[in-house]
Write a structure and sequence with these properties.
This protein has six helices and twelve strands. The chain is α+β, with helices and mostly antiparallel strands. The chain has two domains: 185 residues, no CATH class; 90 residues, OB fold (Dihydrolipoamide Acetyltransferase, E2P) (Beta Barrel), CATH 2.40.50. The longest helix has 26 residues.
Length: 297
């Protein structure tokens, strides 16, 4: 019995064209559109649960026009406690719905030329995220307009490279979308409308300690977040008091699971002022030798 084309874990991403096309050009284009959609996934999964990561695998490939079937898999990062299967499944369903909502919106709108048009899309996505993923156990934050603009830009850039009569087709159980090279975004106008605006965002992160402060309540600590170094002030006074009282040990290369607030200012010219990081709450300490220990009993 043939395997169904679509299920709850995959989507079809197709490059439709007439006549002949150089194979390298066709495959590179499909790779570029896929990578631009991955950037969108990464943005939203960071707002949901940074203890999860997304992996993809190619399930099938057809020729003529190039048709690919891609499986999407949600996994835990190595340092994170095991998540419930149903939670991972829900996050995976949302990411499939996310791609459909964005691509369908671009198909219908074609031109995004105002802050308001981005806000309509953002509200649609955030309403769906709340409806599908509302959960008291996880801190889910909203993505702001500037972040969404940044994530949409590479998608639209890739679409602009389509030739006339060429189209990208997306299919999932949520629905279908077909896009051509007419989709555009007026980034300069939107940034001007956003103006000199301050954004705040809170996510749950795992930070590796690089330099700590043994005494002061006011100085910043140095951490590694992913592949970058950040300075963050800990404003969780209850945790600091217990740390200074030596109720638990902490050394460089240990990690903290935290609720991290990021504040940054977007300038009208598109430049972003260096972000300020604050640790609102320390949730747990993760030690390399035994992976995790619980702070509060």
């Amino acid at each position: 019995m043939p395997k169904p084309l679509l299920n709850e874990e995959n989507f079809l991403l197709n490059l439709l064209f007439e006549g002949n096309k150089q194979p390298a050009e066709a495959f590179n284009f499909l790779k570029d559109i896929f990578q631009s959609l991955s950037t969108l996934d990464d943005l939203f999964i960071s707002s949901i649960d940074n203890g999860l990561q997304i992996e993809y695998s190619l399930e099938d490939l057809e020729f003529g026009s190039i048709k690919s079937r891609i499986r999407q898999l949600i996994e835990e990062i190595p340092d994170e406690a095991i998540k419930e299967f149903n939670w991972k499944k829900l996050v995976g369903h949302f990411l499939l719905k996310l791609k459909y909502l964005v691509l369908r919106y671009l198909q219908e709108k074609e031109s995004i030329d105002s802050k308001e048009s981005l806000e309509i899309l953002m509200r649609s996505i955030e309403n769906e995220k709340t409806k599908m993923l509302k959960n008291d156990r996880f801190i889910i934050t909203e993505v702001n307009v500037y972040q969404l603009l940044t994530a949409l830009e590479p998608i639209i850039l890739v679409l602009s490279q389509l030739k006339n009569q060429e189209k990208i087709e997306y299919k999932s159980l949520d629905g279908n979308a077909i896009l051509d090279n007419k989709v555009s975004i007026n980034k300069a106008k939107i940034l001007w409308e956003l103006g000199d605006k301050k954004f705040e965002n809170e996510t749950t992160e795992i930070l590796k300690v690089k330099k700590l402060d043994l005494l002061s309540d006011n100085s910043t600590w140095n951490f590694k977040l992913g592949n970058k170094s950040i300075d963050a002030k800990i404003i969780d006074k209850d945790w600091l008091d217990k740390y200074h009282a030596r109720e638990y040990t902490l050394l460089p290369e240990d990690s903290l699971k935290v609720k991290l607030k990021v504040c940054y200012v977007n300038k009208p010219d598109g430049k972003v002022v260096k972000p300020i990081y604050e640790i609102v709450k320390v949730i747990d300490i993760i030690y390399p030798e035994n992976n995790q220990t619980t702070l509060y009993k």
